[in-house]
Amino acid sequence: MSDRVEQLILDLFAIEAVKFGDFTLKSGIQSPIYFDLRVIVSYPVIMNEVAELLWETTKKSGAKFATVCGVPYTALPLATLMSAHHDVPMLIRRKEAKDYGTKKMIEGKFEIGSRCLIVEDVVTSGSSVKETAQVLESVGLVVTDAVVLLDREQGGKQKLKEAGIELKGICGTAQLLEILRRHEKIPESVAEQVRDFVRNNSFLPGLEPPVKKSRKVLSYRERGDLCQHPVARQLFSIMEKKKSNLAVSADLCTAEQVLQLADQVGPHICMLKTHADIMTDFSTEFVQSLTELADRHQFIIFEDRKFADIGSTVQHQYRDGLYHIADWAHLTNAHALPGSGVLEGLKQVGLDKKRACLLIAEMSSKGNLATGDYTKATVKMAEEHKDFVVGFISQSQLTEDPTFIHMTPGVQLSGSGDGLGQQYVSPWDAVVTRRADVIIVGRGVYKDPDPASAAQRYQTAAFEAYQHRLAN
Ligand code: 5BU
């Protein structure tokens, strides 16, 4: 059964029945995790599996019952499937009939004094299960057991026990986080945030949830105003004006292809990312044309050079060679691996030209080593070089400092990988769950037969996700 639970959690995450971000719950509390099981009606195979696992969980618990009743509305189809597949009669609780005297609250036949099992999708405080139990009991039924798909583990189980109801769950928040972490679906920082939330928002007696106001999320404009570095200020300003937090990665091999793509996607992007060293015909004319397009469409040019050598060598690589990167790229990036010398070297070339740099704190590729203490040390290095480092390439938000920009590659609307280690998340996941400021999309845009429309789709998805963060 545990393999099936694991697969189910992954499926629920994939269909966004489990979401991470900033959500206002019914109670008015801000939560970093949200379960929206209503969507499962659109996925019959998943819905059926949920119903089967609910049934097996109940049977394993030894609960005895003559009828089943789903808490309206999300659990209704689940109870229906359990009833139909296992030949156990169902009852329907009417939600809208407020007047107990005139309307029937419970539809279906039952014997007074018989037991009814309550079926629920998510339990937080247990109040919805309790309410349904009270209605069932008001017509003479007995409720001793309830079964739930997801227990948020905020004290609902204990509350129901006090009310004489034994709650059994298929999965709890802790196990859900463990599964999603093991499959690298969410970063550790997000899992930790949810664990903190569960700890601090228990419904157990004496531990009533504090009404917590989440910290205000600053807009791109507000953050730009806080920045010292001109490139960071310009980028935030472009993002706000163009309503775009999309960077397109122009991983193409000829100048003509890169320029054509830049012109097509220009209106939809805040930044164009290049890999100059994959081009066969890099030239000063190319640089001139690209700079003109950047001025015309208003985007930042980011050369994804990933410097990773001693200071003296990266200085040459940045200033000299075939590419003279410092002459045309507003932004470049570096690995923290060599130590702060890499930044000292780059700075000596870049600062005078008002260029900026990102540090690679996390990577999107499977099995990469930029994790844990390495990532933490990278953030520290950035903090020590704020005159040049304006943010990170990362897979999650690494600091609350609003002047650091987090850019996340490995984003696609469909597709989970490329067979060469790349791992994709959706724009929503990148911006809401992982709190990226900018999403970086390569093949999702340039491989599309209509790159302009594709860029527009990514722009809309990522900007709506940002607006969701602002509003919550
Ligand atoms: P894709 O086609 O969307 O998979 O391209 C992603 C781009 O981002 C590509 O240019 C990579 O070199 C770059 N990238 C990445 O994918 N993952 C990382 O961790 C880093 C860069 Br750092």
From TrEMBL:
MF term (GO), any: orotidine-5'-phosphate decarboxylase activity
Ranges where the Orotidine 5'-phosphate decarboxylase domain occurs: 245-458
Stored Pfam families: OMPdecase (PF00215), Pribosyltran (PF00156)
GO biological-process terms attached to the record: 'de novo' pyrimidine nucleobase biosynthetic process; 'de novo' UMP biosynthetic process
Record's keyword annotation contains rRNA processing: no
Keyword Transferase: yes
Superkingdom field: Eukaryota
Residue positions binding substrate: D251, K273, S364, Q422, G442, R443
Function: Bifunctional enzyme catalyzing the last two steps of de novo pyrimidine biosynthesis, orotate phosphoribosyltransferase (OPRT), which converts orotate to orotidine-5'-monophosphate (OMP), and orotidine-5'-monophosphate decarboxylase (ODC), the terminal enzymatic reaction that decarboxylates OMP to uridine monophosphate (UMP).
Family affiliation: In the C-terminal section; belongs to the OMP decarboxylase family.
Classification via NCBIfam families: pyrE, pyrF
Oligomeric form and interacting partners: Homodimer; dimerization is required for enzymatic activity.
UniProt protein name: Uridine 5'-monophosphate synthase
Native organism: Branchiostoma belcheri (Amphioxus)
Gene (name only): LOC109481688
